[in-house]
């Protein structure tokens, strides 16, 4: 039986799976920054979205020191992206120290011999009282 959580997940992933840019923008309203990984050619509308930052080879360091460290000290600031699972692991660890959590995660492509799994994710403030 499908529950409400599964229905919400389907609604969030369907626009990306179907490649509908307008639906993607509507489903992810409020996202402050998009992150993509240059190791993957997939990405569709995400690559063209305003406010997109590329991780060269999955390296999170420039993103952390240049953008996220300061931004996550403020209220709100949602971050979403499609990166390798290894880059997401690092971002998730950094997010914990700033009161954020990965609230949505779905595997887009499995791990192959040379690259980690491609994962679509959303990081948001952990407490509902924090304005996103």
Give a topology summary:
Blueprint: H1 4-18, H2 21-27, E1 31-37, H3 45-48, E2 52-55, H4 61-71, E3 78-84, H5 85-96, E4 100-109, E5 118-125
Parallel strand pairs: 1-2, 1-3
Antiparallel strand pairs: 3-5, 4-5
Helix pairs in contact: 1-2
What does this structure look like?
The chain is of the alpha/beta class and 132 residues long. It has one domain (29-125). Helices cover 37% and strands 27% of the residues. It has a five-stranded mixed sheet with strand order 2-1-3-5-4. Strand 4 and strand 5 (118-125) form a beta hairpin. It is globular and about 40 Å long.
Mean pLDDT: 76
Q: What's the helix count? A: 5
Q: Give the SSE string.
A: HHEHEHEHEE
When the domains are counted, the total is 1
Compute the CA-based radius of gyration: 14 Å
| Count of DSSP strands | 5
Structural class computed from helices and strand pairing: alpha/beta
Distance between the termini: 32 Å
- The residue ranges in which pLDDT falls below 50 over 5 or more consecutive positions are 17-27
The geometry reads as globular
Instruction: Report the sheet with the most strands, covering strand number, pairing sense and barrel closure.
Output: 5 strands, mixed
Strand order of the largest sheet: 2-1-3-5-4
